[in-house]
What we know:
Elements: H1 40-47, E1 55-57, E2 76-82, E3 85-91, E4 100-102, H2 125-131, E5 133-140, H3 142-148, E6 160-161, H4 163-173, E7 182-185, H5 189-194, H6 198-204, E8 214-215, H7 219-228, E9 232-235, H8 251-258, H9 264-267, H10 270-273, E10 281-283, H11 288-297, E11 301-306, E12 316-317, E13 321-324
Parallel strand pairs: 5-7, 6-8, 7-9, 9-10
Antiparallel strand pairs: 1-13, 2-3, 4-10, 4-12, 5-11, 11-13
Amino acid sequence: MADELPSYDQLPVVPGAPPGSSWGLWGEGDVLGCLNLLTPERVLAGASCIRRGAVFPLNLELELPGPPLFGRSAFEHTVHNRPSGHDDELSAWNTQSSSQWDGFRHIRHPAHEFYNGVADEAHGMHHWARRGIAGRAVLADVARWREEVERPLRPDAPDPIEPADIVLTLQSQDTTVEPGDILLIRTGWMAWYRELSAERRAALAREGALANCGLAPGADTARALWDLHVAAVAADNPSLELWPPGALLEPDEAATLRHDPERAPEFFVHFSLLPLLGLPIGELFDLEALADDCASDGVYTCMLTSAPLNLEAGVASPPNALAIK
């Protein structure tokens, strides 16, 4: 399959599909996008990474971030006493309040709606859950590399990670991304967040207060990720890309891009990755223990498994992800 994949500049592959989209590549009505690259061969490639049996859970505590960001609700946990024991209940739980996969219902393109032209309600996390996510993952520890080259990332500012940063990080690690890999990008944001006081965390959760480092928006980022032909991309920050959108642009230019349907990914690359390319996005993954282990043994590949919620038409889900080395 890898030999047949078009480059970003060769997209689209079917007449009438939006520019810069993979629509039609995996057939009309496809709802899996780049997860189609997780073939049995890629699962076996992931399994071959297991040498020591070391397991690294990648989900944060459900309580983090706390309070939740982006105005999302904080769940309530109720334990019910029963004659034979207990059961418990979560209420007001937002599936994107902690570690998450963004599903294809999460972001619509301003002009082209949802991935592959599939109706909103026909997408859902249940498609991913019933397929399963397993394969080889590669960690790009951008935060560690930027420290080494004396350009440390600022976790509390819209400090951009350019495509070249990812390439140079991988080179410094002597790591190769293969088609169908899951790319994990460490920004160091979560380690920084854990050190904050309760007051500072509460301040970040206020509307308009959040700023964080992350991938630079624009076609160059979309091109770099697509041309790696990864099955999914995930990071340890709240938004994968830098936040807030348009922070590096002049106000007039930001307003223009935001309201131009064809140039909107230059403002917010989510508009390209999810609805156009069908590339699953993970956010707030807990990568610290994995990154420390990779730095210790020099091995930045692992087996990754993820079991999203089998929720009909779900917009997003905790990843329930494990990395195994």
